[in-house]
Predict the 3D structure of the following.
Amino acid sequence: MDLHVSLAGRGDLAARIYRQILDAILDGRLRRGERLPPTRELARRLDVSRNTVAVAYDRLTAEGFLHARVGAGTFVAATDRPDPRRAVSGRPGRRGAVRRAPGGSEVTPRPLWEQIVAEHVPSSPTTAIDFRVGNPDPSLFPMQTWRRLIGRQLRHSSFDPGGYSDPAGHAGLRAAIARHIGLSRSVRAGAEDIMVTQGAQQALDLIGRVLVEPGATVAVEDPGYRPARLLFRSLGARVVGVPVDGEGLDVAALPPGARLVYTTPSHQLPLGVPMSLPRRTALLDWAARHGAVVIEDDYDSEFRYGDRPLEPLQSLDRQGRVLYVGSFSKTMLPGLRLGFLVTPASLRPALHAARRLTDYHGDIPAQGALARFIDEGMLSRHVRRARREYGARRDLLLSGLTDRFGQWLEVVPSVAGLHLCARLRAGVPVDVDEVVAAALRAGVAVESLAGYHLREPRPGLVLGYGAVTRDLIAPGLRVLLRCFQEAAG
């Protein structure tokens, strides 16, 4: 163990060594059973006599904090002795918790971050019945296959753990993604157009770093994806909400000075409506007239249960104004942190430089494993199996909402993704946030639609079916119905 002991200051050297080792034991930095350096070795490191270190060790051993085993060394003892430094106050010392850094009350973030922290909604605790949005079912993912692929990559002769890699990502994965999205989503891209990211959120961050200047206007959907608008605000943008109706983003309501427009056209988050083809065309025309860039976030459109998919904005774009963002967080697992960005050639050098300045590149073995997962057809097979299961869950949830909540909620039509949105019917005397809180206390997690709004929130619920199994959907809806009935009095 490389034990750091500082001898700065005045006083007896043995006493200073004693106090610092004692601090490390009481704070949890030195844990029960850990072996301390031999007295001769520590004395050599500190440039003191061996006897000086031995005095400190002997005192700690006599007090029960260390114990020595002949021929083995000196170890931290299993003891519940109180902290002798607090004996005067009568308060016992805390054991097993690592000492925290000083509070630093004089060091504060920019005021903007205090607002963002206040607006951020922490994840609700794990519940028995989970209708939260954005969570896929990990039990559907072929984890054993994934472990095998990761192991193969780590053993691969071309893997160089001692070097830095291309900020755009693993070459094989970029080619695999280009083929995959070309077939499954009609996105026009080659391997050189792809940048592999750690999820969609990093892609948004890189775009913002390259395109958003402090004070610039960024238009977002309202209601819409909260982490995107908070991210753009953190970069100093003026974020403006644009209404969403049955055809998607209302292009006529876009602010004329917007530099960037963020949208989820394939499956609007949270309402679930797709952007109509006339709106897509209008948005691209608007971007061309105003010199704006459009971010198309296609986060879960591979789970589609009906209707023919519309052409992506990226495939309709002829001026290189659309940045297409994709993620494997829903099709695979969010913990893998794998996503991608389709980059216009004009922005590619800046985006690659921005990646180098942040984390340089992602997890190359995981990227190589995903390349094989795609190329060998495993991703397509997994998506097909998952789509069947999620489709069955969606049907159960939709029928339950339609049959039992008709007097309370109106379900927004949606044919894709992993969630459904239901708006509170006009005139219903129910506080939806009260319903959400009551359901959580009863073990059912569900989200309020109001949290997705930037201004003028409309009450309703957003219910995910990725993390809830079929057998729990009906019980969860029964709890939710009871909460509505109790809230209505």
